[in-house]
Specification:
By secondary structure, the chain is an alpha/beta fold. Helices cover 39% and strands 13% of the residues. The C terminus is likely disordered. The structure holds adenosine monophosphate.
Length: 485
């Protein structure tokens, strides 16, 4: 499909902003949703993150609201006209950033409110008046109760990632928020799945919605090549390196299931000559920021992360995602591999499957309704099999301990933050807005990118501190277990 934004007759300030973003053609969800939203009809959209969903609802919504545009300094002239609700602060922040970009040549004001932050600066912004308010449900209710947010002039409400909001238990909060909105309004609901609960929600709050489905619910983006390779735990690192080498891939995300495993894997890969950074829930905001920034700058080749990073990160064009551990939750698989192949770019998702993971793989098969083939990956190696050193033993013990207590993802953590906030609205100021998600990913410069660490010459690799001098490439050993074990 080559649907162009120019066919939409967007107002000049919006068209200019889109042109500046460098978008050449509409993504499928945009081509389908924008014309419908422009008519003011309710929409029930099934679309994954990374499909261009934010522009699909925010551009037509801005276009419809332009009639209210004004330069008055009076807050009364800037009531909330559009409300966008999201499950986590990271997603809220990201969507708000995008809306600001699309609205930058208009007089429309937008703001974002979410938990875990001092309410005061948010209150000041709300009191000044904003037309577009992006929020997480808990914090929004705090502002409604404090009379900072008045919603009786809302014309558009967007329930984004609605399935996740229900998973977290936001239904009562959503119901309360929706009770403050005018009956006469347009409601847009986006969800990765159309579960019976989502259909019930839509049945209660949407009027004759137009259903838009760009990919079947729970389908993975077709631009992602998905590979499942059989690998014993001890072989996984070498498979990662071999795939990177073979495909000439310069940067990738590597997902693991535990925080301890995350740190350990990052350190092991680093010792083996790769530039890595670890990203998980126990890292401070500053550390997370540094890790992501280093990845964006190309100083880091592999971002080793837990599912804490699976949602919300809008990093374009990550060429590959590795599932070093098969996720416990099949839905996390869809989110993890959604980090690559975004907005039409092609991507590679490699999942490393040990014999005990077959049940998790079949959960993924069921979810994405696709038969998955676990292939053997030929490794060159001369290391004796089954020789587990103390570091690896420790790593396994940690992973087993954490398996019983897997790390909670952003959503649930966001939820916990939200509910904490609800109990005590005015907490001391915390770090200002998470800049982690603010800057778009830019591919490293040619110079930075030219020497991915695993492509370095043997000489330069050997000079890396801590790298074993015993690594000898190219000696064949059967390294694979039989599939189907
Ligand atoms: P979203 O699904 O809204 O999170 O968007 C994912 C990414 O796709 C964002 O970085 C957008 O800037 C980008 N994007 C959105 N629409 C387009 C488009 N038409 N062409 C290229 N990139 C886009």
């Amino acid at each position: 499909m080559t649907a162009s934004f120019s066919n939409l007759s967007l107002a000049e300030p919006l068209a200019r902003a889109v042109a500046e973003m460098g978008y050449e053609s509409m993504t499928p969800i945009q081509a389908q949703a924008i014309p419908v939203v422009l008519t003011g009809k309710d929409v029930m959209g099934a679309a994954q993150t990374g499909t261009g969903k934010t522009a699909a609802f925010s551009l037509p919504l801005l276009q419809r609201l332009l009639k209210h545009e004004n330069t008055s300094t009076s807050p009364a002239r800037h009531p909330v006209r559009a409300l966008v609700l999201l499950p986590t602060r990271e997603l809220a922040d990201q969507v708000a950033q995008q809306i600001k970009l699309y609205a930058k040549y208009t007089q429309m004001r937008s703001a974002v409110v979410f938990g875990g932050m001092d309410m005061k600066p948010q209150t000041l912004e709300l009191k000044r008046g904003v037309e577009i308010l992006v929020a997480t449900p808990g914090r929004l209710l705090d502002h409604i109760e404090a009379k900072n947010a008045v919603l009786n002039q809302v014309e558009y409400v967007v329930l984004d990632e609605a399935d996740r909001m229900l998973d977290i238990g936001f239904l009562p909060d959503l119901q309360r928020i929706l009770s403050f909105l005018p009956k006469q309004r347009t409601t847009l609901l986006f969800s990765a799945t159309f579960s019976p609960e989502i259909k019930r929600l839509a049945g209660s709050y949407l009027q004759d919605p137009i259903t838009i489905e760009v990919a079947r619910p729970n389908q993975t983006a077709s631009t992602v090549e998905q590979r499942f390779y059989a690998a014993q735990d001890d072989d996984k690192r070498r498979v990662v390196k071999a795939v990177l080498n073979q495909r000439g891939i310069k940067q990738a995300f590597v997902f693991v299931n535990s925080k301890l495993g995350c740190g350990r894997l990052a350190r092991s890969l680093e010792r083996e000559g790769l530039k890595t950074a670890a990203l998980h829930g126990d890292k401070s905001q500053d550390e997370r920021l540094k890790a992501l920034e280093a990845f964006k700058q190309g100083e880091v080749d592999l971002l080793v992360c837990t599912d804490v990073a699976a949602r919300g990160l809008d990093i374009k064009d990550v060429p590959a995602v590795f599932n070093f551990d098969v996720p416990f939750n099949a839905e996390d698989y869809v989110h993890r591999i959604g980090r690559t192949g975004r907005a039409g770019a092609s991507g590679l998702a490699v999942t490393l499957v040990s014999p005990s993971d077959m049940r998790l793989v079949s959960d993924i098969e069921k979810l994405i309704k696709t038969k998955l083939e676990v292939e053997n990956y030929p490794l060159d190696d001369d290391r004796p099999r089954g020789n587990v050193n103390e570091g690896q033993r420790e790593e396994r013990r940690d992973n087993r301990r954490e398996e019983r207590r897997p790390e909670r993802g952003f959503e649930r953590r966001g939820d916990a933050d939200e509910s904490r906030d609800r109990r005590s609205s005015f907490r001391p100021a915390q770090a200002s807005r998470d800049p982690f998600f603010e800057k778009p990913y830019e591919a490293p410069s040619a110079e930075q990118a030219s020497a991915a660490s695993w492509e370095a010459s043997p000489k330069s690799v050997a000079t890396r501190p801590g790298l074993s001098a015993n690594i000898k490439p190219k000696r064949k050993v059967a390294a694979l277990f039989k599939s189907g074990e």
